[in-house]
Amino acid sequence: MYTFDANNLSAKTQYKILTGSIIPRPVAFVTTQSAESDVVNAAPFSYFSIVSAAPPLISISVQRKEGRQKDTARHAIRSKELVVHISTEPIVEDLNKTAATLPAEESELDRTNLTLAPSTYVSVPGIRETSIRMECTLYDHIEIKDEEGTVTADLLLAKVVGYHLSPEVYDENTGYLDARAIQPISRLAGNDYSKLGELFTLKRPE
């Protein structure tokens, strides 16, 4: 067993250990809109999870690059709106293209075959080709700082105000979603992703 003092590790080493250990991670595909130009930005984020069901909150951590806030965080904080999609196999190639670093006035979607769909509860549009999308408002924004007080990430807590679920993945009779039909993809370390693997059931103790 290797033992490391986290205080003595570089940020790069911390990243390798954390992203290589906490796997698989679901990938949020997020659209936001610029207040200045109405450009719709889209980007994937694997620091993504559920926070609460009452109220319905999800979390997305947007890492800063050299202290600079990314478009997704900046737009969501200013407009207080975003749309979060579940990343799936059918769109993974296009999704990967949106991870490119582009000027703020250029939409990542222009490099893909994905199209926009109007939202019902927020002004930011979503992605038509996704099977699950959640329209959200910003519940809270928390700046994550390092030991020197430098902001390294923007933690977004988003409140879901509306769901769009494809009939292929949602059973209206039971209220459950079909994991196999969703075909979710998840993030590993480096350039690696994974598909949904073998499923098993384990009943919780009373």
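Second entry:
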Amino acid sequence: MTRTRLTAAERSEQLVSAAITAFSVAGYAGTTTDDVARLADVSQPYVIRLFGSKRQLFIAGMERATDRIEEAFRAAGTDLAGLGSAYDQLLAERELLSMLLHGFAASSDPVIGAVVRDRFGRIYRLVKELTGVTVEQARDFVATGMLLTVLGSLRVLGPDAVPAEPWMTELTGSIWDSPTDPQD
């Protein structure tokens, strides 16, 4: 059996995808470049040759996750309901949610933290830019998105949701009843 030779750019994309898979399970501290290499079916030295370090690979995964959100928002239109619907669709991408949460958790690392803060700020500014809403409305939208990210990661939302408990219903009910309801 012969393997198809990938370009460096294609291999880099493959490694970032594998990194998101690995980091979304075990986080930054719990994942090694060898874990990523095994998922991508390449050698660990090759991962280092392309990315330089685990930190840079993690950052590439975090950037991919936030790029995905920005792309979805840009395609969604110019109102909060459209952006909310776009984020609602992204909630099904479990690895994306986990990568975001692990990115926030790894932000005590000064280099990772700077990138994560920058990317979070970009998403916030994009919401304001696309919709023209007030600071308060943008803040509420982003805060609701963060709550949805956490609830999705906890399996409170989505196709594989756990049985609802009263607190879950209270939290999600208030979200779906809000003026920025993605289900409107």
